Structures are given as C-alpha cells and as structure tokens.
C-alpha cells in the first residue's frame, strides 16, 4: 500500500503520507502545479480545499522550484519556475542519458536550466533516495568508490509510459533557460553597478545618510525596470476563441481562476472581469455575468490555442466540482 501511494505521489508530483493520497497535479505548461485538488496545500486532497489562501509549496522538490514575483493580487507571492513533479522527471531523463553521481546530476540540472537555479545536495539526494525506493534508479555496483546512479528497467519503462509529461517538463526547463539567458548589455550594466556599490560601501567613513541614499537609488532603479513596458508579439498573428459557460457562480469561479494563476503571472481582476497573461502573447480574458462565465482565449497558433482551451476548462471544472458544467461551445474570433 505504501509503495502504491509513493508511486501515485511521484507520478502526480505530490507527496505520499500527508492527509491521504495526494491530489492530482496539473502537468501542463501553463499551470503552476497547485491545482484546486492538488496536495500542495495543507488542506489535503479534498476538492477545492483551501486553495487561494496558502502560498506555493516549501521547496523545489516538494513544492515551488525557484520563483519570481507573483500577481498583483495577494501581495506578490512567489511562483514556480517548474511544476512540482518536473525535477524528478528531469532527473530520470538525465540518468537515461548516462549514469551520474549526485553532484553530476546537480550540475546537469543547473545546465539544463541555464543556471537559473541549481538544486542543493539537501534537495537532490532525498529525491534520488525516493527514486531508489520506487525502483526507478539504482547504484552502479560495478563502479569502485563513489557509485553513480543508473536508470533501472522499471525507470526506463516509467519514462516511456510518461513520455508526454517528460517532454512537457523538458519544454518548461528550456523556457526557464531561455528566459534567464544573459544579455551582454544588461550584464555589463550590472557589473558596473556592483563596482560602484563596492567602491562606495567600502569607505570607512560611510554615513547613515549615504547608506539611505544608496538604498533609495537601488529601489528607484528596480521600480523603473519593473515599470518598463512589455512588447507582445504582433497581434495579427494571434488566434482567438470564445465560449460562455452557463453557471450561477461565474463571479466566484472567475476569482478562483485568477487567484490560482496569480502565483505565476501578472493577473489583474475584479468582481466581473479578469485578465490572465500566460506569456508570449498567450492570454485568457474572463467575464462574469448573471448568465455565466465568458472565456476568451488568445494564443500564438492553433495548437497552443487548443491546449489553452483545455487547460482553462480543466481548471474550471476542478473549481466547479459541485456542479455539472456543460461542454463549452468554442467559437473563433476574427
């Protein structure tokens, strides 16, 4: 029974042994891994239990992996660079390439993410122990000294059976790497800032007023950078679809969806409207009326549009578990 719970927890990205079986983890690229029925909140696996009140999990391997500033609502919570189950899938993927020691996996994972994050030994080795318990990895006994980890036949079978999840995790890792790729002009400016700070703060006669002025200058620079406009892709290349879901709880579902994604994106919403920017010009606009919840999805291409439609409706159904929602009638928007 315990092994079955651990396998469910691994495949779904949750943890075994906390309030029963973990809830289903959202595995798509536009989710943050904290689905309404997910096990990441202390409320357990009850549908809709406490979501929107707690923050993300408590570490890259059991909760959030790194992060960035969250949405406007809720005081800037930190979101995930990767979904919760991704690091385990990525570790198995890297071991499928060749056997590796723990420190080699740490370095390979950091390289995969373009240096945006590097897991610590305290995070990597417990994960490898879990994979050993599941029978997916083993120590290579043929090696002397430190024994590298190698993928077992059961681990290879798990990767093959979950290839779509692995590919999605790899795509998220590449996106993280691309977002954090260095820009020479910015790096040069940051180096100049570091030199200026080091030169100023190393003076023995530094006064409290000078410290306050330096801090104020840094805060002003940060605010100016955050206020820079974001250039979206050319709107002419975008595709859109809209649907209305008949429900008397449209306002509540709008708020729940927006709070959910505010962990990762700069979401803006009020009682009747919501805007969720998924990045790269992809977005979802929500409108709550007495008749139902209006949903308009915008994407770069038809494939992304279809996927986003599934993602939004999947999340909506989880929040609306107490009622039976009809099948959405998506209509193209010119």
From TrEMBL:
Note the InterPro entries from the entry.
Tscrpt_reg_PadR_N, UCP028291, WH-like_DNA-bd_sf, WH_DNA-bd_sf
The UniProt regions of compositional bias labelled Gly residues, in chain numbering, are 45-68
What SUPFAM superfamilies is this protein classified in?
A: Winged helix' DNA-binding domain
Lineage, top-rank taxon, reads Bacteria
Bias class Basic residues marks the residues at 69-79
User: By its UniProt entry, which Pfam families does this protein fall under?
Assistant: DUF2218, PadR
- Give all residue intervals belonging to the Transcription regulator PadR N-terminal domain: 92-160
- Give me the ranges of the annotated region Disordered: 27-82
The protein here is known as Transcriptional regulator, PadR family protein
Species, as recorded = Rhodospirillum centenum (strain ATCC 51521 / SW)
């Amino acid at each position: 029974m315990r092994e079955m719970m651990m396998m469910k927890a691994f495949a779904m990205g949750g943890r075994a042994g906390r309030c029963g079986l973990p809830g289903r983890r959202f595995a798509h690229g536009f989710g943050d891994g904290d689905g309404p029925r997910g096990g990441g909140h202390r409320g357990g696996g009850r549908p809709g239990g406490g979501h929107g009140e707690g923050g993300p999990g408590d570490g890259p391997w059991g909760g959030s992996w790194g992060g960035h500033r969250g949405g406007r609502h809720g005081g800037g919570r930190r979101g995930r660079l990767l979904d919760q189950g991704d690091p385990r899938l990525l570790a198995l993927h890297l071991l499928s390439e060749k056997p590796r020691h723990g420190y080699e996996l740490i370095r390979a994972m950091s390289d995969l993410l373009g240096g945006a994050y590097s897991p610590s030994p305290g995070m990597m080795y417990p994960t490898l122990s879990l994979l050993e318990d599941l029978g997916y990895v083993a120590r290579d006994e043929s090696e002397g000294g430190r024994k590298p980890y190698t993928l077992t036949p059961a681990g290879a079978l798990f990767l093959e059976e979950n290839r779509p999840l692995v590919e999605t995790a790899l795509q998220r890792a590449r996106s993280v790497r691309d977002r954090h790729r260095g820009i020479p002009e910015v790096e040069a400016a940051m180096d100049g800032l570091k030199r200026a700070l080091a030169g100023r703060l190393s003076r023995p006669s530094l006064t409290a007023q000078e410290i306050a002025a330096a801090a104020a200058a840094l805060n002003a620079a940060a605010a100016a950078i955050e206020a820079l406009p974001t250039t979206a892709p050319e709107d002419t290349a975008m595709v859109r679809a809209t649907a209305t879901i008949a429900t008397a709880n449209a306002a509540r579902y709008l708020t729940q969806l927006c709070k959910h994604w505010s962990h990762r994106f700069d979401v803006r919403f009020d009682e009747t409207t919501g805007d969720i920017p998924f990045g790269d010009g992809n977005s979802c606009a929500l409108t709550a009326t007495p008749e139902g919840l209006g949903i308009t999805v915008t994407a770069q291409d038809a494939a992304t549009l279809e996927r986003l439609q599934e993602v939004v409706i999947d999340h909506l159904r989880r929040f609306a578990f107490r009622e039976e929602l009809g099948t959405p009638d998506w209509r193209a928007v010119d």
